[in-house]
Amino acid sequence: MSVFKYSFLVALLFFFLTAVAITIDGFNDQLKISDVAIVFGNKVNPDGSVSPRLAARLNKAVELYNSGIIPNLIVSGGIGKEGIDEAIAMRKYLVDRKIPSTSILVDSQGNTTADTAKNSAAMMRQHGFKSALLVSQYFHISRARLAFKQCGISTLSNAHPRFFEWRDIYSLAREVVGFYSYTLKNDQCRKP
């Protein structure tokens, strides 16, 4: 076997094992009473309604709030190609489901996972929050947790919605690359 083929097979195996580890980690919800839940943004439709994937995340947050696990939420997202502020749409969705607006903090600058971690960590410090429960798709949990730890938030738990789309396969592959990218940078929260 040539060195190239051997290296390729080792890289492929490493990629596969990382994907399996990310999947197991993401499916292993750790529901702990926390000061705040961080809900990561996703697509908002041109009419301002949230996509099914984002609705699933928000419904999970409503479930956690109503069960008393979290008393506060941070919704974080950017302005997508549709021109809609994801975080504002997320807030509206939650308020429409009887979550008090006073319990929701809005981060409209959460364009990336690193931005969400940096901005949410600052909001947490400002409000005296020490623990966070991360709400996102299962494949995103490992990288999200890593980003928050890099921003000094280490008391973390997580939950994922029961939602699957075929694009999750692509998203999982992308997360393997993203996870190692965040691991190597290790400076997500440095100030400019």
Automatic annotation (TrEMBL):
Gene3D superfamilies: HUPs. Residues 35-156 form the DUF218 domain. Pfam families: DUF218. GO terms for cellular component: plasma membrane. This is YdcF family protein. It comes from Glaciimonas soli.
